[in-house]
Specification:
heterodimer, A: about 300 residues, mainly alpha, MetI-like fold, 12 helices, flat, B: about 260 residues, 2 domains, six-stranded mixed β-sheet, three-stranded antiparallel β-sheet, globular, binds adenosine-5'-triphosphate, binds magnesium ion, AAA+_ATPase (chain B)
C-alpha cells in the first residue's frame, strides 16, 4: 500500500530531477577524488637510493682519511684490510654461512615468539583477569634490556642452542604481545559498535573487526620484537662461543676479539648491522607500509 | 521467502515500537536523566525524523533502538535487527568499499557466490558503480556516506536508523543525498528513523517529524508532513513548515534560559 501510493507520487512528477541528480553526483565524485599514480623509477632512484649511497661514500672517505692519522692497524684497520677479510671469507665460502647461522636462528626463534606472543596478547587484551594479572609485568618487561636474560638463560639451559632460542623468545614475546594489546586498545569504539549492528559479535567480532582494526599496532610490535630478538641473539652468541654450535655473527665478533684481529671485528660489526637493516628493509618495513597504506595512514610526500 | 511468511503470520504492524522509554546515565554529578518517557511508533515503510537540539538525547535513543544500549525503563520492540548508519561513516578502513558491503552480507549469511553480484547492485543503487575496489580514504565524504548507506541497506533490515548521516557534508552534496535517500526509500520500502538537528532536512525528508525537547529529552510535538515527494529543500511548503517548527523549537530552547 505504501509503495503504491509513493510511486504514484513519484510518477506524477517527471523523473528528470532524479536523473539530473545522478549526473551531478558523478561530476562531484570526479572532482573530489584525485588520481594518484606510482612515482617514476628515476624519482625513486634520486630520492630513495642516492642519499644512502652518498652517506656511505662519505663514511668511507672519512675512514680512509682517518686511517693514516690513527696509524695503528690494531685499533683502526684500513678499509682495504677489512675488504680483504670479507673477500677471504667469501672465497673460503664461509661468509654466507656466518650470516645463515645467525639469521636462521633469529628467524626461527622469532617465529616461535610469534606463535606464543599472539595468543598471549589476545588473552591480555580481551580477558580482564589476565590483563590485571600479567598486563603490567608484560609492559614492564619491555623496558628490561633483553640482553639481561642472557646470564640466567646460560645458568638454566647451559651454553647451547636452546639457551639462544630462550633469549630470543624472552626478547620478542613481550613486544609482540604488547603490540597486539595496544593495537586492540586503540580500536575505535565506533568500529566495534558498527560491527555489532551488523551482527559481528563474540568470535565473529574479534575476527572481522577487532583483529583487522588492531593490525597496525600488531605490526609495530612485530617490528620492535624483531629488533629486540636480533640484539639479544647477538649477545647470546658472543657468550655461547662453541665451535660445534656453528659460527654465527656474534661468534665471529668474539673470535675477532680473542685473536685481536680488528679487521675481523669490523667485518662482524658490519655484517650484524647489514643483516639487521636488510631484514627490516625486506620484511618488516614493506609489511608495515602495506598495512598503513591500505588504510590511508601513510601519506606519500 | 520463509522469513517473509513468518513475518506475515505475526502480522507486524510496526517497524519499531518505543514505549515509555527512559534513559539515565550515572555521572560523577549523580543520575542524569537524558530521555524521559518517550513513546514513538514507526509503521512499516514509514519515514520518521526525530528533531532536537544538540545534546537532547537523539543518539542515545537511536543506540537504544539499535540494541547497543539498554533503556532504564520502558520497552523497545523492532521487527528484526535494525541497521544503523552513524554520523561518521564508520566504514572499515582495512577493507575496500565493496568489501565493506560484502562483510555485511556475509554476516547476514548470504552465500559467497551471491555476495559479489549483490554488492554491485547495492553500489549501483547508491550510484557508485565502479567504486568496488576503492579504499575508504580514496573516497570523498559524500561517497563514503553513500557506501555506508549501501552497507546499511545490505543488512536488509526492515528498519534503517540514521544518526545525522549528512551533518558533516557540504550543502550541495547533502541536497543530492536527500534526493538519493528519498529515491532509495521509495524503491526499497524500508522504514526509516532519521535523526537530525536540521529542521529543513527533517521536513524535506519525512512523512512525520517528531520534536524532542532537551534536558531531559521528551516528545514536545509532532507534525505530519503532507507535502508530496519529490520535494526540494527550497520549496515554499517545506520552508513554511520549517519556519513553524523552528519557532516551537526556539520556544523550547528559550524555556531553558529562564531558570
Ligand atoms: N555514556 C554516557 N554517559 C553519560 N552521559 C551521556 C552518555 N551518553 C550520552 N550522555 C549525555 O546524554 C546527553 C545526550 O547525548 P546524545 O549524544 O544522545 O545527544 P544528541 O542529541 O545525539 O546530540 P548531538 O546532536 O550533539 O549528536 C548529553 O548531555 C550527554 O552528555
Ligand atoms: Mg548525536
Amino acid at each position: 500500500m505504501y509503495c503504491v501510493g509513493r510511486s504514484a507520487a513519484m510518477a506524477s512528477t517527471e523523473t528528470q530531477p532524479a536523473q539530473d541528480a545522478g549526473s551531478v553526483e558523478a561530476g562531484l565524485d570526479a572532482l573530489e577524488t584525485a588520481a594518484a599514480g606510482r612515482p617514476p623509477l628515476r624519482h625513486t632512484l634520486v630520492n630513495k637510493v642516492l642519499p644512502p649511497v652518498i652517506a656511505i661514500a662519505v663514511v668511507l672517505v672519512a675512514w680512509t682519511l682517518l686511517y693514516p692519522v690513527v696509524d695503528d692497524p690494531s685499533k683502526l684497520p684500513s678499509p682495504a684490510a677489512v675488504g680483504a677479510v670479507f673477500k677471504d671469507a667469501w672465497l673460503r665460502g664461509d661468509l654466507l654461512g656466518y650470516i645463515w647461522t645467525s639469521v636462521s636462528r633469529g628467524l626461527l626463534g622469532f617465529f616461535f615468539a610469534l606463535l606464543i606472543g599472539t595468543p598471549l596478547g589476545l588473552l591480555v587484551a580481551r580477558v580482564k583477569f589476565v590483563r590485571a594479572a600479567i598486563g603490567p609485568i608484560l609492559s614492564g618487561l619491555q623496558s628490561l634490556p633483553s640482553v639481561a636474560w642472557v646470564p640466567p638463560a646460560v645458568i638454566w639451559l647451559g651454553l647451547n642452542n636452546s639457551m639462544m632460542y630462550a633469549v630470543i623468545l624472552l626478547g620478542a614475546v613481550p613486544s609482540i604481545a604488547n603490540g597486539l594489546v595496544s593495537g586492540v586498545d586503540q580500536v575505535p569504539p565506533l568500529f566495534l559498535r558498527a560491527g555489532r549492528t551488523m551482527g559481528a559479535t563474540g568470535l565473529k567480532g574479534v575476527w572481522h573487526v577487532t583483529l583487522p582494526a588492531a593490525l597496525p599496532g600488531y605490526v609495530a610490535g612485530l617490528k620492535q620484537g624483531w629488533a629486540f630478538s636480533w640484539r639479544s641473539l647477538m649477545a647470546a652468541e658472543i657468550i655461547a662461543n662453541f665451535p660445534d654450535l656453528g659460527v654465527g655473527l656474534g661468534q665471529l665478533l668474539e673470535n675477532g676479539r680473542t685473536a685481536s684481529d680488528m679487521a675481523m671485528v669490523f667485518e662482524a660489526i658490519l655484517l650484524i648491522l647489514f643483516v639487521g637493516i636488510a631484514i627490516d628493509l625486506l620484511i618488516f618495513s614493506p609489511l608495515e607500509r602495506r598495512v598503513l597504506r591500505g588504510r590511508g595512514l601513510l601519506v606519500r610526500s | 521467502m520463509a522469513t517473509t511468511l513468518a513475518k506475515a503470520e505475526e502480522a507486524v504492524e510496526h517497524a519499531a515500537r518505543i514505549e515509555h522509554v527512559s534513559k539515565s546515565f550515572t555521572t560523577p554529578a549523580g543520575q542524569q536523566l537524558v530521555l524521559d518517557d518517550i513513546t514513538v511508533d514507526v509503521a512499516p515503510g514509514e519515514f520518521v525524523t526525530l528533531l532536537g537540539a544538540s545534546g537532547c538525547g537523539k543518539s542515545t535513543l537511536l543506540n537504544l533502538v539499535a540494541g547497543l544500549d539498554r533503556p532504564t525503563a520502558g520497552t523497545i520492540t523492532t521487527d528484526g535487527r535494525p541497521a544503523l548508519m552513524f554520523q561518521e561513516h564508520a566504514l572499515f578502513p582495512w577493507l575496500t568499499a565493496g568489501r565493506n558491503i560484502e562483510l555485511a552480507l556475509r554476516l547476514r549469511g548470504v552465500p559467497k557466490p551471491e555476495r559479489r553480484g549483490r554488492t554491485e547492485e547495492l553500489l549501483e543503487l547508491v550510484r557508485l558503480k565502479g567504486a568496488y575496489g576503492k579504499r575508504v580514504h580514496e573516497l570523498s565524504g559524500g561517497m563514503r556516506q553513500r557506501v555506508a548507506l549501501a552497507r546499511a541497506l545490505a543488512q536488509e533490515s526492515n528498519l534503517l536508523l540514521m544518526d545525522e548521516p549528512f551533518a558533516a557534508l557540504d550543502a550541495i552534496t547533502r541536497d543530492l543525498l536527500h534526493d538519493e535517500l528519498t529515491r532509495i526509500w521509495a524503491e526499497t520500502g524500508v522504514s526509516v528513523l532519521f535523526v537530525t538537528h536540521n529542521v529543513r532536512e527533517a521536513v524535506r525528508l519525512a512523512q512525520r517529524v517528531i520534536l524532542l525537547s532537551s534536558r531531559p529529552g521528551r516528545i514536545a510535538r509532532e507534525w505530519t508532513v503532507g507535502i508530496p515527494q519529490p520535494r526540494r529543500i527550497e520549496d515554499a511548503p517545506v520552508a513554511e513548515l520549517s519556519l513553524e517548527i523552528t519557532d516551537v523549537l526556539r520556544g523550547e530552547i528559550r524555556r531553558h534560559g529562564q531558570h
